[in-house]
Every structure is written in C-alpha cells, then in structure tokens.
UniProtKB/TrEMBL annotation:
Gene3D superfamilies: 3.40.50.2300, Winged helix-like DNA-binding domain superfamily/Winged helix DNA-binding domain. One of its GO terms (molecular function) is DNA binding. Keywords: DNA-binding, Transcription, Transcription regulation. The keyword Transport does not apply. It comes from the Bacteria. Residues 15-83 form the HTH gntR-type domain. The lineage of its organism: Bacteria, Pseudomonadati, Bacteroidota, Flavobacteriia, Flavobacteriales. This is GntR family transcriptional regulator. SMART domains: HTH_GNTR (SM00345).
Length: 347
C-alpha cells in the first residue's frame, strides 16, 4: 500500500522535485510496495503533503503516464499500470499455441534480446475473443508488441486475421508492432518476419523432386479441422506442385488406424500425432522406411533430427533472432523467413 513515508523529497538536491517524485514512485514499484492497479494519491494530496505546487506533481505524473508506469481513470484518479522492471525494455509476445516450434522461436527471441528486456508471453489458443481480451489488458503497457497471428472460425478453419484483430493492431505505431509468421492482408503500417506458406512448401518439394521419382503416390496428411488449424495455403502449395509435375497424389485428414500402406507410397505429415501413428504402422507391417515407404514431416524438431526424419521446415531459431534484431536495431522491414528441405534417412 502506498505511503508518503516511502517518498523522499530532498529540498537541497540539485535534481528537480518532479523528477524526485518520478524516481520515488518507480523505486516503490520495483521494491514491491506499490502493486499493479493500486491507486496513487491525488495531485492535490501529493502537493499538500510535501508543500509542492500542483504543477510540480502534475509534471511528475505526466512523465509517469508517458512511460506507461501509471494510468489515469477519469473521475477516479491515477493507478499503477505495471510492476515489471521499468529499467528494461518491455515486450508483449503473443502466440496462438504452446508447441515445440513456438517455444523455439520465443527462446531465440528472448536470448537475442538479452538481459535488458522483459518479455511477457501470452497464449491465446487461436481464439479471437481471448486475443482481444489479452490485448486490451496490455494496451499501452509495453514498449513493443510481437504478435504471431493464427485464428480459427467456429468451424475450425484457419484465419490469419479477423476484422477486429486487424483493427486492434492498427492502433499500435509501426515502430512498436512486429508481426511474425503471417503478413497483414493489406497495408504497409507494420513490420515483421513471415512465412510464405504456399510457396514455401512448393519450393521445398521442388528441391526434393528428383528423389521423389521412385515413389508412385504422394500422400499429404493435412488436418482439415483441428483445435489449432493450419493455413490452407500449405494445401494449395502442395496441390500446385503435384499438378505441375503430373504426380499421383491423395490428401487425407489423418493417418487412420490400420491405414492401407503400399510400397512406393510417400507420406507428408503435418501433425506429430500422424507422424507417430504412421511410424508405428510401418514398423508393425514390417515395412522399411525410405525403401518401402517414404516420409517427409512438416516443421523440424530435435527429435526428428535425432531419428533421421526428412523435413520441410521454416527456420524457427532464425525467426526469433530476426524479430529481436529488428527491435534492437529499430529496423522497419518485412522479411521472409528461410524455409528449407532437409534430407535425412526417411526419404
């Protein structure tokens, strides 16, 4: 709870009194004496307690508001806006789901920013309402906003953005907003690093085309409806590749139990559960991976590297590092993240 005893105004100091007020309040927040949403004394009360002019206290509160340390509520007064370390760069980092891939991006981002940054991770589970609620709570409280936009409809279809989300993002200055993974549908008032989902898979499979000639059917396992849906642009890029090369292909929603596997089938899996189910069935049916059945997995992980699974994948570490570099060096740009075909034992 706030106490005037915790604020020291030194009349003999060469530091202006309004800055002494600013420092005193910040020190109280850092020490834990002032909590988030706690009400501060009114300007009148503060000026009377220390025999200061209203202008002096008003100037101090204005500086604290500009730093997003406090907020004013009309008719109610001033409140503490945040209690995180105010000497650090504060970043709101919003992702759509908690996964190995997302955490690799997040960790690379945090490590590149270094110890002078505080990164507040929020997960909104592809839900527009949850995103907007978290966004409203954080509005004005951070130095930078990093958003990885992936949303879903009631029918579990993927959306990169919604009208309400786009409107909310548009209120943030371009130098404070950074988008990851997806681009805004229109406009230039943002910066970010993105995947080109359709062309990424198309280009990666083109690099693998020569080795694919030994397979008679290409099967993409793409979950049409998922709790965390995938961009259909992946599907479009796959179809484009197969049609241009006159390949026999099928698309399934999942790897079914007792899937009929035929020699010279090449599977491309998106979700981890389908990858594991397929590997299990290949083993149970005494088929040999890469000899009888080919396998390519979407998105690389350390376990896939360890077990020799061929992948087509964006570079998650590079995405996090590039985003952090943009903030550290105030770069305003839109950068396509590297996407690679990594040939291993399964293909």
């Amino acid at each position: 709870m706030f106490s005037f005893e915790q604020i020291e105004i030194n009349a003999d100091s060469r530091k202006p009194k309004y800055l002494q007020i600013v420092d005193g309040i910040i020190e109280n927040i850092q020490a834990g004496y002032l909590k988030i949403d706690e009400r501060l004394p009114s300007i009148n009360n503060f000026s009377e307690e220390f025999y200061l002019s209203r202008d002096t206290v008003e100037k101090a509160y204005a500086i604290l508001k500009d730093k997003n340390v406090i907020v004013s509520v009309k008719g109610k007064g001033y409140y503490v806006n945040r209690t995180i370390l105010l000497s650090k760069t504060n970043v709101l980092f919003m992702i759509n789901k908690l996964s190995n891939y997302k955490m690799r991006i997040y960790n690379a981002f945090v490590n590149t920013l270094g110890t002078n940054a505080y990164v507040d991770l929020k997960i909104y589970h592809c839900e527009e309402s949850l995103f907007l609620n978290l966004w409203a709570k954080g509005a004005g409280s951070y130095d930078y906003y990093v958003v990885m936009p992936h949303f879903k409809t009631d029918e579990l279809l993927h959306l990169s953005y919604t009208e309400k989300v786009t409107k909310a993002l548009s209120k943030v200055p371009v130098n404070k907003l950074l988008l990851m993974d997806n681009k805004l549908p229109e406009g230039d008032n943002y910066r970010g690093i993105y995947q080109d989902f359709e062309n990424d898979i198309y280009d990666a499979l083109n690099k693998a085309f020569k080795k694919m000639s030994k397979y008679e059917k290409i099967i993409l396992v793409f979950p049409e409806k998922s709790v965390y849906p995938y961009p259909k642009r992946i599907l479009h890029g796959f179809r484009k590749f197969c049609v241009e090369h006159n390949l026999d292909f099928d698309i399934y929603n999942e790897v079914y139990d007792d899937m009929i596997l035929k020699p010279k089938d090449l599977f491309i899996t998106i979700e981890e559960s389908d990858l594991i189910n397929l590997l299990k069935q290949i083993k149970e049916k005494n088929l040999v991976l890469s000899k009888d059945i080919g396998l390519i997995s979407y998105n690389d992980t350390p376990l896939k590297e360890l077990f020799g699974i061929t992948v087509i994948s964006t570079d998650f570490k590079a995405m996090g590092e590039t985003a952090a570099d943009m903030i550290l060096n105030n770069k305003i740009a839109k950068v396509k993240n590297p996407f690679r075909f990594i040939d291993r034992k399964s293909f």
